[in-house]
Design goal:
The chain is an alpha/beta fold. The protein folds into two domains: 137 residues, Rossmann fold (3-Layer(aba) Sandwich); 148 residues, Rossmann fold (3-Layer(aba) Sandwich), CATH 3.40.50. It has a ten-stranded mixed beta sheet, with helices on both faces. Helix 1 crosses helix 2, helix 3 runs parallel beside helix 4 and helix 8 packs parallel to helix 9. The longest helix has 22 residues. It is elongated and about 70 Å long. The two termini are 23 Å apart. It holds the Pfam family Usp. This is Universal stress protein. It comes from Streptomyces fodineus. InterPro entries: Rossmann-like_a/b/a_fold, Universal_stress_UspA, UspA. Belongs to the universal stress protein A family.
Length: 288
């Protein structure tokens, strides 16, 4: 089954930027584009019944899709206008997609994405990657030699889904993967004789972290031999280190644990920080 790249569209400037980004990515990957608009019937519009309102919505979406189809005449595009609660409708669409692409209004008074409640909830609920594209995004950065930056943590298995997405994206774009691993000094009580010996064997904490990153990347280097890779290991919090290299990124890729809590899904502090402060599209990849 071929999964499409799906874009959420509502006619706003940010959703048009997301739709444009999704169209370009679909062309690169040779995938179809699916455009989804979730709407609710407005009973307050007494002069317009459900069918009339559906027609208005469909017409607006069609106009946005027409522009993408004109830019990419060979791209297979489908449109679904679904009535229902937006978060659940978009999360369902994401489950059937290679990725879901959503728009963000841009930046607030403090530099960062204005991530609305719908976008945040969809990211927390989605079982597939979700890409946030800010209003005003332009394709120039994708051709400016910038990297696909990806955060790596733990061992190779912990970040496998995130690294796979980053390497696939870089391969489709002819870009470099810049893999970033942050580390901090552990509390003294976390040391054990065995762990101290392990650190001594590799020469200290920083060489240990560099080796861990190299080991995590090894299978992906073998699978994608044509993708250049740059390794970045730095002491600091994961969010701060990732944002320190955001200026050279055409896309940032971060992971999110897909387990749920009693109050629903969560996106995590690192992902939350990157989403609010990165000045480029951000992909959030769920993993176990």
């Amino acid at each position: 089954m071929t999964r499409p790249i799906t874009a959420g569209a509502d006619g706003t400037e940010e959703s048009l930027a997301a739709l444009d980004w999704a169209g370009r990515e679909a062309v690169r990957r040779g995938l179809p584009l699916r455009v989804v608009h979730a709407w609710r019937y407005a009973e307050s519009l007494a002069t317009a019944d459900r069918n009339t309102q559906h027609g208005w919505v469909s017409q607006g979406v069609a106009e946005a899709v027409r522009a993408v189809s004109e830019r990419h005449p060979r791209l297979e595009v489908s449109v679904d206008v679904v009535e229902g609660e937006p978060v659940h409708a978009l999360a369902r669409a994401a489950a059937e997609a290679e990725m879901l692409v959503l728009g963000s209004p841009g930046h607030g008074p403090v530099l960062g994405f204005l991530l609305g409640s719908i976008g945040q909830q969809v990211i927390a609920e989605a079982t597939r990657p979700v890409v946030l594209v800010r209003a005003g995004d332009r394709p120039t950065a994708e051709a400016a030699g910038r990297d696909v930056v990806v955060g790596q943590h733990g061992d190779g298995e912990d970040s496998a889904a995130t690294l796979l997405f980053a390497f696939e994206t870089a391969a489709a774009r002819g870009a470099t993967v810049r893999a970033v691993r942050a580390w901090t000094l552990p509390p003294v009580f976390a040391y054990s004789p065995g762990s101290l010996k392990l650190l001594d064997d590799v020469g200290g904490l920083e060489p240990y972290e560099k080796q861990a990153l190299s080991d995590a990347l090894e299978p992906w280097r073998e699978r994608f031999p044509d993708v250049p890779v740059a390794e970045h290991v730095e002491m600091g919090s994961a969010g701060q280190v990732l944002l320190s290299v955001a200026g050279r990124a055409q896309l940032m890729v971060v992971g999110r644990r897909s387990h749920r809590t009693a109050v629903g899904g969560r996106i995590g502090s690192v992902t939350h920080g990157v989403l609010h402060h990165a000045d480029c599209p951000v992909a959030v990849v769920p993993h176990e």
